[in-house]
Amino acid sequence: MGPVPLAGDMTLSHSALKGDYRRSKDSSPFNRAMVRFSPHFSFAYFALYSVMAQIQEHNVPSSYRDNILKWNGWGYEDSYFQLNKKGQVTLSGARYDMSGQVLPLLRPWFEENLGVDMSYKTPAQPRSQVKIPEPINNQEFIDHLRNLGISFSNKSQHRLVRSHGHTMHDMSMLRYGGPQRIPDLVVWPKSEEEVVMITQAACKFDVVIIPIGGGTSVSNALECPEDETRSIVSLDMALMDRILWLDDTNLLCRAQAGIVGQSFERQLNAKGFTCGHEPDSIEFSTLGGWVSTRASGMKKNKYGNIEDLLVHVNVVTPKGLIQRQCQVPRISAGPDLHQVILGSEGTLGVITEVTVKIFPLPEVKKFGSIVFPSFKHGVDFFREVAKQRCQPASLRLVDNEQFIMGQSMKLEQNSYWKQLASYCSKLYITKWKGFEINQMVAATCVFEGGQDQVDAEERRLYAIAEQFHGVIGGEENGQYGYRLTFAIAYLRDLGMEYGIMGESFETSVPWDKVINLCRNVKQLIRREAESAGVKYPVLASCRVTQVYDSGACVYFYFGFNSRGLSNALGVYDRIESAARDEIIACGGSISHHHGIGKLRKKWVPSTVGEVGISVLKSIKHELDPQNIFANGNLIDFNRSRL
Ligand SMILES: Cc1cc2nc3c(=O)[nH]c(=O)nc-3n(C[C@H](O)[C@H](O)[C@H](O)COP(=O)(O)OP(=O)(O)OC[C@H]3O[C@@H](n4cnc5c(N)ncnc54)[C@H](O)[C@@H]3O)c2cc1C
C-alpha cells in the first residue's frame, strides 16, 4: 500500500464528513489488508486514497510540539549547529549560553575523531517529501469523540510528530525514509474524565491507544507496531499540564501528568520549591513520561530517582482507575502497586495525575570540578565517595574521550587551560602532577544546600579527591560541564548532516565491574565498527553519571562515519546490539533509566526470568484484556485469553 505525501492533506468540512463516514467504512482494517495483498489493487487503492487522505479534526489545540519543536531532530526548531561563512561551527538561535557563539574547535574535533569531511553531505529530505501512510479511520470512534467534544485530528503533520521518539532509527526514518506505521489519529484530553471517556470508547470500538508525553523516548517506545491493523490513537497529554495543588506543610505537589519538566520546575521555583528531578531531557519530557519510564535525574543523589519522589499516582486503565486511597510517606500493605506502574511504558493505561515530593529551594547551588590522571583514578574516587555516602547532589565522571570532546565545544577564550590557570596551569597538571592529556579525565559536581552544608560537602569531597590524585579544576569548569548537557543533545543532528550515526545508551553495574565494563564495551564498539567496514575513526566514550551504594550508572556515547557503507543503519544496529550483549556479559543491566520500549525487549526474558514474564503478562491481561494499550513495549502480549 503506497503512502501518501504530507502535502496531500485536504481539510473536510463538517457536512462533507457524512459522506466520508459512509465511504470510510470500506476502509476497515480488513479491506485495507485486502488492498495491501491484492495484486489487482490499483483501483481500490486510489478510491481509498482519496477518502483516507481527507482530514477529520475537531477543536485542535495549538501545541508546542507542533509549533516550536523540530519535526526531524532534537529540540527547538530555531536551535541547531551549523557552519558559518568561515566554516566554523555555531549554534543558531538565542536559547542557550553558546547560542550565536563560534565554537572554533568543534569542526576539527569532528574531522579528527570521526573522519568527517565537511564537503561530503547527507542532508535530510524536506518535510513535504516524507511519505505518510494513510490513516485507518475508525469512524464510529471518531464520531463518538466528536459527540463528546474531545479534541482530535487525523492530519498527517499531527500524526507524524507523535509517531516517534529520538532513537537513531527514528531520526533516520524522518531524515531519509518514511514511516511504515504511525498513529491514525491524535487526541488531546483536557482532564482525567476525558481520558476515562477515551479509554472506554477505545474498548468499545476496539481502538489502540499510545499515550505520549514529551516524545523524548530513546527506546522506540512510541513507535506503532507495524502489524497492528486496528486504528491507533496517539493520546497526547499536552493539555493536561497544570499543577493541581501544592502542600507546603507536607511538602507535596500534585500535577497533571502532561506537565513538561521545565515548566513544572519553573512554577515550583516561583513558589520557593523544587522537585529536584532533572533528567537531561527536562526541557521537553513530562511528569507522566518520567513515571512511565522510571526516569532518573542528574541530581538523584540528593533528591532521589522518580520512584523515590513518587507519592501517589492515578492511572486510567481499561479496567478502571488505579489509585491508592491515601497519600502517605510509606505504607506496608502488600506489594506496592506503584512499582507496577513505574516503568509500565504506556502498556497498562494512562497516567493522569501524579503527587511528588517537593523541597525548599536550596540556599546555595555551587558547581565544582576535579581532574584525575586516569579513568581508574576517577572511578576509585567515586567508589570511595559512595562508600562514605558523601556524594553531592550531582557527581559525574567523563572519560578522556568525552573530556576532549567537551573541550572542543568550548569557545576558544574559555578553554579548560585558560580557566584552569587561576587554580593551576597546564604545566602544573602535565609536568608536575604527571597527567597525560590523552589519559586524564574530569569529574563535575553540583552541591546544593545551606552555605555551611555546601562548604562542608566541598571540603570532604575534595579531601577524598586528593587521595586519588585529583586536582581541583574550579567552579567555572564544573558549571560548563552541566551547561553542555543541553547543547550536546543537538550535536547528533549536526553529525547526521555529514554521514555520522550516533547514539547514547546506559546501564547500571556493580562497583567492582565498572572499569572492566567500560573498557570492554568501548573496545567492542570500535572492533565491531571496523569489522562492519567503517573506514574512519570511531567515537566510543562513557561517563559515570550516578552513584549508588552498590554500583553506578554508566552512560555511553558512540558514533561512526557511515560514508561508503551500503547499509549504515544495519551496521549501527549490529554495533548497538553487540554493545548491549557485551554490557550484559560484563555484569551490567539492560537499562538504568531509558527503559525497554521495543529496542531492548529481547533482553527482558533473560533479565526478569520466565516466571517474572508470566507475572507481567497476568497483570497486563487483568488490566487490559483487549490489549488496548498495544504499543508492544516491554514484552509481547497477546489479546485476551478469555
Ligand atoms: C537528549 C535526551 C536526554 C535524556 N536524558 C534522560 C535522563 O537524564 N534521564 C532519563 O531518565 N531519561 C532521559 N532521556 C529519556 C527520556 O527523556 C525519558 O525516558 C523520559 O522520561 C520520557 O518522558 P516523555 O514525557 O518524553 O515520554 P514519551 O517519550 O512521550 O513516552 C515514553 C513512554 O512513556 C509512555 N507515556 C508517556 N506519558 C505517559 C502517560 N501520561 N501515561 C502513560 N504512559 C505514558 C509512552 O507511551 C512511552 O511508552 C533522555 C532522552 C533524550 C532524547
UniProtKB/TrEMBL annotation:
The keyword Lipid metabolism applies. One of its GO terms (cellular component) is peroxisome. Residues 179-361 form the FAD-binding PCMH-type domain. Its cofactor is FAD. It catalyses: a long chain fatty alcohol + a 1-acylglycerone 3-phosphate = a 1-O-alkylglycerone 3-phosphate + a long-chain fatty acid + H(+). The active site is at residue 555. Substrate binds at residue 492. InterPro entries: Alkyl-DHAP_Synthase, FAD-bd_oxidored_4_C, FAD-bd_PCMH, FAD-bd_PCMH-like_sf, FAD-bd_PCMH_sub1, FAD-bd_PCMH_sub2, FAD-linked_Oxase-like_C, Oxid_FAD_bind_N. Keywords: FAD, Flavoprotein, Lipid biosynthesis, Lipid metabolism, Peroxisome, Transferase. The keyword Flavoprotein applies. FAD binds at residues 211-217, 280-286, 293-296, 345-351. It is an enzyme of class 2 (transferase). It is found in: Peroxisome. GO terms for biological process: ether lipid biosynthetic process. The record marks 396 as: Important for enzyme activity. Its EC number is 2.5.1.26. It comes from the Eukaryota. Pathway: Glycerolipid metabolism; ether lipid biosynthesis. GO terms for molecular function: alkylglycerone-phosphate synthase activity; FAD binding. Homodimer. Catalyzes the exchange of an acyl for a long-chain alkyl group and the formation of the ether bond in the biosynthesis of ether phospholipids. Belongs to the FAD-binding oxidoreductase/transferase type 4 family. This is Alkylglycerone-phosphate synthase. It comes from Steinernema glaseri.
